[in-house]
Amino acid sequence: MKCRMLLLVFAVVACTKVIAQTTSNQDWVGIWNANADGQLTSTLTLATDAGELGGTVVLDILCCEGEPPHVIARDPHVLLNPAVAGSTLTFQVKMQRPNRAIVIASFEVKRTAADRATIHCISCGADAPVVELVKGF
Hints:
- The protein is of the alpha+beta class.
- Helices cover 18% and strands 54% of the residues.
- The chain has a nine-stranded antiparallel sheet.
- The termini are far apart.
């Protein structure tokens, strides 16, 4: 009897820990702002209006040659294939390169706190930055 009770307690604790580490789609809903060196660099907007998680990302293009970094262009995209697994959100966006080639870029957003995460383009090369996101209210 003690052994069964002990196993039950361990099972409940293990399930609680797994549930606490995962986030639902609703937990992601909101406006997430990216900042790099104090400069707003992107905005990730997530909603469940259509019943599933979806949204947009606006990627800001910065220039800093010989002057303080500043936004020179904004590039809006609709999220493709957004998926939540635990505390990680993944999605793709269709992008047009300067040479007019169309590519699909893959992004990964990792939750670091209830209102914080990092975003990283995992298909953009080794020098692609990891940038902090802060969820707005």
